[in-house]
Recover the amino acids of this structure.
């Protein structure tokens, strides 16, 4: 019975990860699209220089229908989607009992986190 | 408004070209933004990385659904490409833009030369396919070893090549498939179709690791990234649907000409002649 469950989990992992990637991309790109429509509709040139990322103001920017809120949320979603796929794979491999792959997934996430730290320290 | 629409249209063209020819959009987005819209090269690279993640995530989803990508092999290698991407992201802020332009020009010449030699040999295969590789079965687990067994004793070479692909991706705003696919196909013996699909899967985390470095350092302009990413997404979607109806050979000849012209312009920038 346990083997049957593991086979089922193995068969389900790739399609599940595909759904994570596709949903993450479509949702993120939808936010970017709304931001782009607001940006161009408002007559602002993309070359005007967009505001820097400020996570604290994204919600208020979206509430005020300012393009930067939608654009930044979409861009953050785009950047986070591959990492979400790795998290999904980590959970899937854990359920299958593939500890080596769980370690690989954790190491990938650690490297991505190191990128954030590197950027903060260097910035 | 006009600039935004032009940027959107440029993104559509880059996405469609890249998708039809099986190349990442980064190769075209960086020159489009630098030569077409006058953006600093580093800023163009950062925007290109965002676009590369979009196209990679969308197509990797399809490859995973069809079980063409080797998830385990991809994850092992992307650990190294991500590390390389962070190194590249850090280096990108230290080196001169003219050197970056020179590296990009060299990359364009390399791709143009590769495509030219392919044109001389025979009609090019469909993007992402290989004459010598049997078509993937409905369930490609028959082809893909479930243990990622391609690595064997070649992990050091694969790791080194993957780090190099990550560095190139972060420095030049490309997916790095130009390095990863030959690495997997020629060094690890992965069938080309699976190598292409697995490379596509890896590109997402590679580009996202370097994009995060640019993002945290304030290197991404959301106003430029928005229209360009939407254009690339639409273009790549259109390209994947229309690609089979367009003459590949004529398109490749046109693309080689575009690449060579762009290489000359990038070379002029590298030499300070622009």
């Amino acid at each position: 019975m346990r083997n049957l469950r593991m086979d089922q989990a193995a068969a389900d992992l790739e399609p599940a990860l595909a759904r994570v990637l596709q949903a993450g991309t479509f949702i993120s790109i939808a936010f970017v699209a709304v931001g782009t429509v607001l940006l161009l509709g408002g007559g602002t040139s993309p070359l005007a220089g967009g505001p820097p990322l400020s996570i604290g103001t994204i919600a208020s920017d979206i509430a005020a229908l300012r393009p930067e809120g939608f654009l930044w949320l979409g861009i953050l979603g785009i950047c986070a989607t591959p990492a979400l796929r790795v998290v999904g794979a980590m959970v899937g491999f854990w359920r299958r009992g593939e500890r080596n792959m769980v370690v690989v997934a954790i190491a990938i996430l650690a490297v991505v986190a190191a990128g954030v730290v590197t950027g903060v320290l260097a910035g | 408004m006009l600039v935004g629409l032009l940027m959107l249209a440029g993104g559509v063209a880059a996405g469609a070209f890249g998708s039809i020819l099986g190349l990442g959009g980064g190769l075209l987005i960086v020159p489009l933004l630098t030569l077409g819209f006058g953006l600093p090269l580093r800023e163009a690279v950062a925007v290109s990385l965002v676009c590369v993640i979009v196209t990679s995530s969308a197509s990797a989803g399809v490859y995973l659904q069809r079980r063409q990508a080797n998830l385990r092999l991809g994850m092992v290698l992307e650990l190294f490409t991500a590390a390389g991407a962070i190194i590249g992201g850090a280096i990108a802020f230290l080196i001169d833009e003219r050197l970056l332009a020179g590296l990009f020009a060299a990359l364009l010449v390399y791709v143009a030369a590769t495509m030219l030699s392919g044109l001389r040999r025979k009609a090019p295969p469909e993007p992402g396919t290989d004459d010598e590789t049997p078509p993937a079965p409905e369930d490609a687990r028959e082809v893909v070893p479930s243990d990622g067994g391609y690595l064997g004793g070649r992990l050091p070479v694969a790791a080194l090549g993957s780090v190099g692909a990550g560095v190139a991706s972060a420095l030049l705003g490309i997916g790095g498939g130009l390095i990863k696919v030959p690495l997997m196909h020629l060094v690890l013996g992965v069938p080309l179709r699976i190598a292409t699909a697995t490379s596509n899967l890896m590109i997402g985390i590679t580009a996202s690791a370097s994009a995060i470095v640019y993002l945290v350092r304030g290197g991404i302009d959301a106003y430029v990234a928005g229209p360009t990413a939407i254009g690339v997404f639409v273009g790549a979607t259109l390209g994947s649907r229309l690609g089979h109806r367009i003459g590949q050979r004529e398109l490749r000849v046109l693309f080689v000409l575009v690449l060579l012209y762009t290489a000359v312009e990038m070379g002029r920038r590298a030499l300070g002649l622009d």
User: Anything to note?
Assistant: Residues 31 and 262 of chain B are 7 Å apart (CA to CA). Confidence is low (pLDDT under 50) at residues 123-147 of chain B.
